[in-house]
Amino acid sequence: xxxxxxxxxxxxxxxxxxxxxxxxxxxxxxxxxxxxxxxxxxxxxxxxxxxxxxxxxxxxxxxxxxxxxxxxxxxxxxxxxxxxxxxxxxxxxxxxxxxxxxxxxxxxxxxxxxxxxxxxxxxxxxxxxxxxxxxxxxxxxxxxxxxxxxxxxxxxxxxxxxxxxxxxxxxxxxxxxxxxxxxxxxxxxxxxxxxxxxxxxxxxxxxxxxxxxxxxxxxxxxxxxxxxxxxxxxxxxxxxxxxxxxxxxxxxxxxxxxxxxx
Length: 262
Prior knowledge:
Mean pLDDT: 74
Helix content: 10-25%
Oligomer: single chain
Strand order of the largest sheet: 3-8-9-7-6
Distance between the termini: 49 Å
Number of strands: 13
Largest sheet: 5 strands, mixed
Structural class: alpha/beta
Strand content: 15-25%
Order of helices and strands: EEEEEHEEEEHHEEHEHE
């Protein structure tokens, strides 16, 4: 049985307290716990943590996904205590959608299970710097172990990893991009109805890695950035490094990886 605790961290006092909270879940093995009064005071700088799980892996000092059992229990807990009707994991963020408005600032925690809580009112858009594209509505998928190990938040994956992800799991896609903590799979531009039908079937995320997964209707970059030095990979003897100063020539820096699937 899961044992939940609410640990309130007041930054000014550097105080940490553990107070049991109720757990309500549709999972048959998770019995409800008695309701205990919440800690008094401002929760805007507090965290809600759980004894059984966390998105932060202390041993490996990195973020990771939680188990399917905990993924079922957590939304139920957030629904009962904070009015959350939908939850999207986008490590290191936990995006929480509230149907009746988000809780007051002094009544909602800053972090939950070591993820930064992003509170969103129903109908409002998720901030663009946190999530790009649309989320799939299908079941999450498990990818090969070596690929999952290389896909970690704020870690640049190998070129071969992204290429294998798009060719093995998203064969109809045109591009795949990795930005900070998320994979964005880009499809050819479609009309809204066709895109909605596609989103209904696309996976909602990865089961065995901490990066989020979203999809773009059309390429993220409308105009393809051209290399200042054209590569000729088919001629190995003439392989050259592109050491051009793109900041100087284009006035900006475009980090990340983007693969086009031919």
